[in-house]
Predict the 3D structure of the following.
Amino acid sequence: MNTSTPEDLTRSAVLAAHGVIKPLIHETPVFTSSSLSASLSNGNNMYFKAENLQKGGAFKFRGASYSLSCLAEELLAKGVCTHSSGNHAGALALAARERGVDCFVVMPSNSAKPKIDAVRAYGAEITFCEPNARARASTLAAVQERTGATFIPPYDAVNTILGQGTAFLELVNQVPEQLAAIVAPVGGGGLLAGTALAARGTGVRVFGAEPAGAADCALGLKEGRRIEDVDSKTIADGLRTPVGVLNFPIIQGNVEAVIVVSDEEIVEAMRLLWERLKLVIEPSGATAFAAVRNPAFQKLDIKGPIGIILSGGNIDLSMPLPWAK
Amino acid sequence: MNTSTPEDLTRSAVLAAHGVIKPLIHETPVFTSSSLSASLSNGNNMYFKAENLQKGGAFKFRGASYSLSCLAEELLAKGVCTHSSGNHAGALALAARERGVDCFVVMPSNSAKPKIDAVRAYGAEITFCEPNARARASTLAAVQERTGATFIPPYDAVNTILGQGTAFLELVNQVPEQLAAIVAPVGGGGLLAGTALAARGTGVRVFGAEPAGAADCALGLKEGRRIEDVDSKTIADGLRTPVGVLNFPIIQGNVEAVIVVSDEEIVEAMRLLWERLKLVIEPSGATAFAAVRNPAFQKLDIKGPIGIILSGGNIDLSMPLPWAK
C-alpha cells in the first residue's frame, strides 16, 4: 500500500526514490554545446539533461516507475490505470510491462496516433473517451470498478513528484562543476516540484519555464493562489495542464521564478537543440531552454553554469517540423 | 612530422591513437532499443554507437583530431587544409580551432548551406571552387602554395583510418556482452577500415553497409579490385565517394561482406532511429542499421549482439524530412 503523505515531500525522500528506481531507469546523458553557450548574452555554460533519451522518451518514466515500486504486491496484481493523452500514459504502460503488471489507460478519442500506438505497443489496454475532463474521470472510474486497478496520477501525487525529482540528482552528479541554477518546464508541476525538492539545500537556484499559452503557474505565483483553469493554446502539448494541488505550494516555496515564453521562442529553441545537440526534442522538452534564452532570465545575470532539463522527445514525425510550417 | 606508413595500420596503432585523442573527443553514448531489436527477424540485441553526438556531429572528428595530433608543431604553425563538402571539413575546422591552428577548406560552390555555415562558424577560411574533382585539387594546391598548410585527407590516410577506428574500441568497452558483429557504413572507407583494424583478433565479425546508388566497395570486393569511379545517386551524401587506396585492401582482408541497401531502406531506418532513439541521424548515419534490417544480413543468422555505428547527424533541418517528401 502506498502510504506516502505530503509530509514525505522532502529532498531525502527524492534520494530514497532514486535508490529504488536506479536499476529500472536510464541514467540519461548530459550534453554541452560551446556554440549554444556562446549564443547566450551572459555566455553561461549549460548542461542539458536529455530526458528524451529516458525509457518511453520522457522523464515521466521516473515517476511511473517509482509509483509502481511503492505499490504492494496485492495491488500490483490487479494492475494500474491512468488517464492521459500524452507521455505519462506511455511511461506507465512501459513501466507496468517491465514489472509484469497489467495497465489500463483512458485516452481522449482525439489523442495523437503516435501516442496511441506507443501505449498499445507497450501492451496497455486502452479505453477511449470523449475529450473532456468529466468523461476522462467517469471512464477511469468505470475502468477501476471493473478491474480493481490502482490509479497512478500523472503529476499530482507524492510518489510521482519524488520520482521526477531524481533527474536533478543525476544531473548534479554528472556535471563537473557546481550549478548556479536549474531550469525545468512546468505543466502539472511534477517535474518542477520534484526538482525543487531535490535542489533544497544544494545552493542551486530553481526556475520554471512555462508557455505563454498555458501560463497558469506563473499567474498563480503572482496572485498567490493556484489557478485551476488553464488555456491550452500552445504547441507545447505536454504543458497544457494546470499545476497540481500538491505541486503548487512546493513550487511557491522553492522556485525563484517561472519564466514565460512564447511558442515562437519554444520552436526556435527546439530547432537549435535538434541542430546543435542532434537530439529529437518535443516542444515541451525545449521550453526550459527557451526560458534560459529569454531576456527575462538573462536579465537575472546569473553567474555560473545552468542545468536545463530537456523533458521529452515524443513528437509526431509524420508532421512537418514546426519551423517549416 | 607525420611518419606513419601503411605498415602502421594495426589494431595496436588504433589503441595508441585512442590513448592520444581520448582527452579531445567525446566518448559518445551507446543506445539500445528493445522494440527495434524485437523488429529484427533474428531478434538480435543491437548496440547503437551514437557518433552523431560526437563533436562536429560525426565520427570524422576522431580522424581529424588524431591527424592533427600527429603533426609536428612547425607544421601546425602553418595550419591545415582539406577539400570537402561534408563532415570532414567541419570536423577538421573544429579540431583545428580547439588546437589553436589555422584551417583552410576548399568547398565546391554548390555545397549545402548548413555545411558551409558550420565550417565558417568553426573559424575556418573557405575557398570555393567549381564542383568537380580537378577544380578541388587545383584550388587546394593553390591554397597550400599560399599558406604552407598541411593537407589532411578525409579518408585515404593512415592517421585518419586509425582515428576512425577508435569508435569501435569505445563501443566494445561500453557494451556489457561480447559483440557477435559490428556494422559500419562505407564511403571512402576510413570508418570501415579503422573499425576492421580495431576488431582484429576480438572475434567480432565486421560488415560494411553501402547505398545501392554508390556501391563501389561491394562491387570492388566482388571483382577483387578497387573501383575508382562511383555513381553518387543516393540520399546518403556522406557515402558518395569511392573507397580509398589504403582503405580497400584493409576492407578486402578484414570485412566479411558489404551489405548493399536501397535509399528507401535507408530512409525507413533513419525514421525508426529518430522515432525510437530520439536521435537526429543523417541518411549516411542510418545506413548501417538499414543493412542490419536487410534480408541479406538477416539470412546470415548471426547469433548474438550486433554493434551498429550511427556515423553522423548533420542534416539540413530546413528541408522536409525525407520520409515526408
